Amino acid sequence: MKMENLASQLKRGISRQFSTGSLKRSLSRQFSRQSSLDPRRNNLRFSFGRQSSLDPIRRRNSEDEMSVPENLDSTMQLLFMACRGDVKGVEDLLNGGIDVNSIDLDGRTALHIAACEGHVEVVKLLLSRNANIDARDRWGSTAAADAKYYGNVEVYEILKARGAKVPKTRKTPMTVANPQEVPEYELNPMELQIRKSDGITKGSYQVAKWNGTRVSVKIFDKDSYSDPESINAFKYELTLLEKVRHPNVVQFVGAVTQNIPMMIVSEYHAKGNFQNYLQKKGRLSTSKVLRFAVDIARGMNYLHECKPDPIIHCNLQPKNVLLDNGGKLKIAGFGLLRLSKLSADKAKLARPDDQLDPSNIYMAPEIHKDMIFDRGVDAYSFGVMLYEMIEGGVPFHPKPAEEAVKLMCFEQKRPPLKIKSKSCPWELRELIGECWDQEPLIRPTFSEIIVRLERIVASCTKQGWWKDTFKLPCLLLQEMRGNLSSLGKSKNQTRISWEVPILISSFQTFIFEIVCYKLDLNKILNHVHIKRKKKR
Which residues, by range, are in coiled-coil regions (predicted)? Predict the structure, then answer.
């Protein structure tokens, strides 16, 4: 029974500090640096004795468990003999043709194992058989680093004399002393592939691949590691991202905090941010405005209702809203501004001189004035975004942004909606006016905004506001008239007479299918032609 337990330990899954199944899918990539020696790779983990010095969870078996398990393959036998310090056993296996650089699932060689345990003679034997002295395991540790970590001075000196390179300390400001304290969100940096052509831009988001999935990665600026404020800002952003889960909020994937560089990883959206979309599309239809407004309001309401404390965005604007492949909007960019919490719902900017942007027209007046604020600042930003969606431009465009901010925040002026009344429900106009009101108490909460938006949607549906989502009958009939004319001029087609009553009747029959299934014009014409024949 004891032997069975030991053998089963060798087949344990991936340890919890790294994402499940990631190593099996990326072995060839992770250990490519050792490919010149072509080591034999093993799909088992050697879990006996001392573990890698860089393994966040170092396991240690008791001495009485060190009897040889049955049914071990050649690689695991070699690692086991190296762990026991059995020089004769290691030599016999090497003479039998086993590759001295064979590795287990974690990329550990016999030299790693012997260096951890301090077996000098085994180390000398392995080196005499051309063991790769600089082979790195999955955590980037070498035999020399392991020997130094475990205080095996003699082994370390032997390896160093042979030219072993000891990796520099890669501790980060968030490195934990106790391996059990490694955060659950911690990712293995070797699983992230950032294209070299893209480079690494400090403090910016970049596209990368994580286990075959495209993700967005924010690289923490190395120059900020010694800046307590920057570290606190990084931790604050992580704290917020870790606890949010909502369809209209960008999804947090994980982070790298125990290795350099530190990174925050979130879901990637190829369609980019909402700002790019608005610049491309300009003025949006009423139906789209309401659909997008509901998405933003739901995401913001979730953030504001987070427990124990609400998350105040403070920088809600189109560039901090992402558009997914299904056309849904997701809130991003929260947690970027450091706040000084005065109470559960009251705050101030921690560093206004560094955080205030005088050209940010989406920021509420109380932020620009460096006053105490609450969740109402996000409702103000939402009102400005609503205006931009409806009008196709920011308030007071084309005035300079700084001048527009002055008019809005310091002179309490608001631009009129230029769009015709019949193209924008008065309830929506009223909502914009309340959202960007100078007085925070008048601004509605996002839970109230959602209710009002849904009411407007229902009202528009009832009153036929959605006519801009498909072509009006007269426009469709004009297209059909042109199509029929072209058919009549064809050599193999007879001229089809134009009968408006029949076409209108056919349009009424087919209108539901046009909207729901987007039928092409030829199918509609076919149907019209059949109806026409029947009436004759």
Answer: none
